[in-house]
Write a structure and sequence with these properties.
heterotrimer, A alpha+beta (219), B alpha+beta (281), C alpha+beta (264), A: 219 residues, alpha+beta, four-stranded antiparallel β-sheet, 9 strands, 32% helix, globular, C: 264 residues, Ribosomal Protein S5, domain 2, six-stranded mixed β-sheet, 30% helix, elongated, mRNA 3'-UTR AU-rich region binding (chain C), ExoRNase_PH_dom2 (chain C), RNA-binding (chain C), exosome (chain C)
């Protein structure tokens, strides 16, 4: 059941659980409303000979859909995640090694890409891999009345004329990645990026409280 | 049928619009009067250009009216891990029709016809290349037919040999390809798609085709392939005609290479040819 | 180091091939060059060459969408076009490109699938759009989108008539495909985390720290694709959009001119 939200300018309730898996170096399950994703991180570890890079770590991402084989759409998804992670990881600290990130879809109820990016960031935090900065992703949709809906559900995404996902970093709030579907004007793009930028602060706060909670449990 | 997850796929079963065209029952009879107005012995106009792919060591593009073939050569480069050591180099040939090049859509994977063409192309080129010049290494030849309007193999042979020379691969000679269609007493040079011999039609004796790879300055045949049931006297005549026609192509190939960026290295390798002759004879 | 040698020019707003930062390479367009395809186009952007061939086939529609045809785009990075590609199944890069093209078609709505319907519920057109890279010298996205659009503009579908439940195709009688909007793509590279420049060559792509692809349709944006890479301020994105809209005008003019010269 979807918990009703007070307004369209709010993110759905976010929740996360660390340490559900025993094997990986870091893992997290992130819930964003009904959307949920489990991400596991292995590394820095040994790298396959043919993928070895001499001066930095090889970042690998694998995206596992809920069912079926990954197709072209999943590959594009995977590459967006990998490029995003490559940018904020300090890969140069671990030459000739591999950092692999496995993202498993549990449930897609809208804003799926942003949930995946956020779970990657949290899982990498959990694995204590050195990073340049943190990233937070926020999705918004533009509906047929040209209103911006933050963190849309699947139904809202389907009814809207455009869906935009932004990934922000927390150093000087620049845009790290953008992925959009549908068509929209430049003004709408600007409005969306502004709205999402503000909402990204909530995601960074969520990271902070989640990690604090995890560390206080540990001691 | 397993679906290909690495490509975007449409519906599983599709039919070419040609399958729905009402059959005009008209058996085509080949006569000396060809539908493009050529005489039986003339080639279609040829456009040949080297250096068309900036990333390749050597490349060439050939257009024989509507038959359009592109070829790129890479290497000599490291051989695959499974190959054994050899003092002679390896040539790897891949021949592919573009999906949109024929009347009916082609598949993405190489089919048996294309594999067969790859082997025939390799056979035609190998005798012309100084294989001992690149031991333990491999030269890759990729040929793509962008549009097929007959004589694709002959065009591919010519195109690939120019691309090889353009790549600066040492060669004894260039190879010019030529094909003819035999229909009874008639021999048609450089057949178009509609004139080409098709094995699925029931054909009487002396109907077939011959494709020849010919080294014009050595006056030697590098490869020959024929289809259909042909009498010896007729095939002899056809081969002679192919050889003579290929000879007329030679200046075209030379001129094309002279205009390309590797014309210098070509002159060098041609002087090599002379050297090899001295050793041989 | 070779890298330093190449770093130098970009700092002074000039690129190794003498172009300015906002300058595209010379674009050459040829339409309708493959007569075996229902629509075709060859685009050269500098050295980068892509050929798009559209083959139309007939099939039964999906039961859920009885009046919609299919558009199946696929990008082939052939081993012919670069030493980095080997024969075999499509690489990850090719798959991502195919998906990108599919999304551009969907987002821009350039060809309405309902126009591909022949007999509702029974017969629809399937457009196999194969984009074949013949020379890989960077910026294949822009080249591919342009080749696709030009090929769509060139596509003519044969006439189909249904006589007693059996479709009959007349190949000589054709009508043009309706292209309702025209997407144009512009790719920007980010260099050293701060310098933006358009239309990277393969050399520049190797040195770039990030890429943004902007696809415009009319006065709207239909795709802003930035898969990671150096972070950008929104002002920087806005300058990209401005350049993209300018480029779109240039490209559309080129298409119109080419179509006119072909018809003549």
């Amino acid at each position: 059941m979807e918990i009703p939200r007070s307004s369209g300018f709010q993110l759905r309730h976010m929740m996360c659980e660390f340490g559900q898996l025993s094997r990986p170096d870091g893992d997290v399950t992130v819930f964003q409303g009904d959307t949920s994703v489990t991400t596991a991180v292995y590394g820095p570890g040994e790298v396959r000979m043919n993928k070895e890079i001499l001066n930095k770590a090889t970042v690998e991402t694998v995206f596992k859909p809920k069912s079926g084989l990954p197709g072209c759409a999943e590959k594009m998804f995977e590459r967006t995640l990998r490029n995003t992670c490559e940018t904020f990881l300090l890969a140069a600290l671990h030459p000739r090694s591999s950092i692999s990130i496995i993202v498993q879809e549990i449930q897609d109820s809208g804003s799926f890409l942003s949930c995946c990016v956020n779970s990657c960031c949290l899982a990498l935090l959990d694995a204590s891999v050195a990073m340049k900065f943190l990233v937070a992703a926020v999705t918004c949709a533009i509906d047929s009345e040209e209103c911006i809906i933050l963190d849309p559900t699947v139904k809202q995404e389907k009814d809207s004329c455009a869906v935009l996902t932004f990934v922000f970093e927390n150093k000087d709030d620049s845009i790290l990645a953008v992925y959009t579907t549908g068509s929209y004007t430049v003004q709408q793009f600007q409005q969306c990026s502004q709205t999402c930028g503000e909402a990204s602060k909530a995601v960074f706060d969520f990271y902070r409280t989640s990690i604090e909670k995890k560390l206080s449990k540990a001691t | 049928m397993p679906t290909d997850s690495r490509r975007l796929t449409g519906p599983e079963e599709t039919k070419s619009p040609y399958a729905y065209v009402k059959q005009k029952k008209k058996l085509q009879v080949l006569t000396g009067k060809r539908h493009d107005g050529r005489s039986p012995e003339t080639l279609r106009p040829i456009f040949l250009k080297a250096d068309v792919v900036s990333q390749a060591r050597g490349s060439a593009y050939i257009e024989q009216d509507n038959t359009k073939v592109m070829c790129a050569v890479y290497g000599p480069r490291e051989v695959g891990r499974k190959e054994d050591f050899s003092m002679k180099g390896i040539i790897n040939c891949v021949f592919k029709y573009a999906t949109f090049s024929c009347r009916y859509r082609r598949s993405y994977q190489q089919d048996s016809e294309e594999k067969d063409m790859s082997v025939q192309l390799l056979d035609a080129l190998e005798p012309a290349v100084c294989m001992h010049k690149f031991p333990k290494a491999q030269v890759d030849i990729y040929v793509t037919v962008l549009q097929n309007d007959g004589s694709a193999l002959a065009a591919a042979i010519t195109c690939a040999s120019v691309a090889l020379a353009n790549a600066g691969v040492d060669m004894y000679d260039l190879v010019a390809g030529c094909s003819v269609r035999i229909a009874d007493n008639l021999v048609l040079v450089d057949p178009t798609e509609s004139e080409e011999y098709k094995s699925q039609d029931d054909n009487p004796v002396n109907h077939g085709s011959v494709t020849l790879g010919y080294m014009p300055s050595l006056y030697q045949v590098s490869a020959i392939t024929s289809k259909g049931e042909i009498e010896f006297e007729v095939i002899k005549k056809a081969i002679n005609l192919c050889g003579n026609t290929s000879q007329t192509l030679y200046p075209v190939l030379q001129k094309c290479l002279n205009n390309s960026r590797f014309s210098l290295s070509l002159r060098f390798s041609l002087s090599l040819v002379r050297y090899h002759f001295c050793v041989q004879f | 180091m070779a890298d330093d040698f190449k770093y130098g020019p970009h700092e002074k707003d000039v690129r190794p091939d003498g172009r300015e930062l906002g300058e595209f390479r010379r674009t050459v367009l040829n339409i309708g060059c493959i007569t075996t395809a229902e629509g075709s186009a060859l685009v050269k952007l500098g050295n980068t060459t892509i050929m798009c061939g559209i083959k139309a086939e007939l099939a039964a529609p999906k039961p859920a969408e009885p009046d919609r045809g299919f558009i199946v785009p696929n990008v082939q990075l052939t081993p012919l076009c670069s030493p980095h590609f080997r024969p075999g199944p499509p690489s990850e890069q090719a798959q991502v490109m195919s998906q990108f093209i599919a999304e551009v078609i969907k987002n821009s709505g350039c060809v309405d699938c309902q126009n591909l319907c022949v007999v509702p519920g029974k017969l629809v057109w399937v457009l196999h759009c194969d984009l074949m890279c013949l020379d890989y010298d960077g910026n294949v996205y822009d080249t591919a989108v342009l080749a696709l659009l030009a090929a769509f503009r060139n596509t003519r579908l044969p006439h189909v008539e249904e006589k007693e439940e059996v479709p009959e195709v007349t190949m000589d009688k054709t009508c043009s495909l309706i292209v309702s909007s025209q997407p144009v793509s512009s790719t920007f590279s980010i260099f050293d985390d701060r310098i933006l420049f358009v239309d990277p060559t393969v050399e520049e792509e190797g040195l770039a720290t990030g890429m943004v692809t902007v696809v415009t349709v009319g006065n709207k944006l239909c795709m802003v694709h930035k898969p990671g890479g150096s972070p950008l301020k929104s002002e920087q994105l806005l300058t990209c959009f401005d350049r993209a809209f300018d480029r779109s005008k240039e490209v559309l003019r080129l298409i119109e001119e080419t179509i006119l010269s072909v018809e003549r």
